[in-house]
């Protein structure tokens, strides 16, 4: 088998750290891809609060490589380093804004910017509500420069029975948005209304 291709997962400090953790878990199970993990300092705290005290250590063990948030000279900070795309989950408004306007002062934002300049997919699971005009303008700017804005919306039509089911669906949908071969995550698809009649 050829060498695994990298996928970058960034976890920033917004609430919803369990989604980023689940994305790492799902990707780590795929033999074709290798996870490069970048976690912001705020996300380290959120992972501990929302997922558990051992969450970061567990994700580091699953990842092919864990890169320090401050290491702007890491391999993934260069467009010449071959990766297939990036997901930021959750994506805080601070991270969204930094990506949108090119404020490249840490590895997470720098790496996201590299995906955009290299025309690779960048999926941002922006986690905030309600939104003011500045948030919406940052989303518009990020979209215009090539990012995919994918707020982590539960698929209520699938009637999830638990929070874990909702997280699984959101994580799988985010992975599928990368559009990569051999990387179809188990996201359930809408198959039509049960009330439809032929």
TrEMBL record:
This is Flavin prenyltransferase UbiX. Transmembrane segments: none annotated. Belongs to the UbiX/PAD1 family. FMN binds at residues 13-15, 40, 92-95, 127. GO terms for molecular function: flavin prenyltransferase activity; lyase activity. Gene3D superfamilies: Flavin prenyltransferase-like (3.40.50.1950). Flavin prenyltransferase that catalyzes the synthesis of the prenylated FMN cofactor (prenyl-FMN) for 4-hydroxy-3-polyprenylbenzoic acid decarboxylase UbiD. The prenyltransferase is metal-independent and links a dimethylallyl moiety from dimethylallyl monophosphate (DMAP) to the flavin N5 and C6 atoms of FMN. Keywords: Flavoprotein, FMN, Lyase, Prenyltransferase, Transferase. It comes from the Bacteria. It catalyses: dimethylallyl phosphate + FMNH2 = prenylated FMNH2 + phosphate. It is an enzyme of class 2 (transferase). Dimethylallyl phosphate binds at residues 157, 173. Its EC number is 2.5.1.129. Pfam families: Flavoprotein. Residues 7-170 form the Flavoprotein domain.
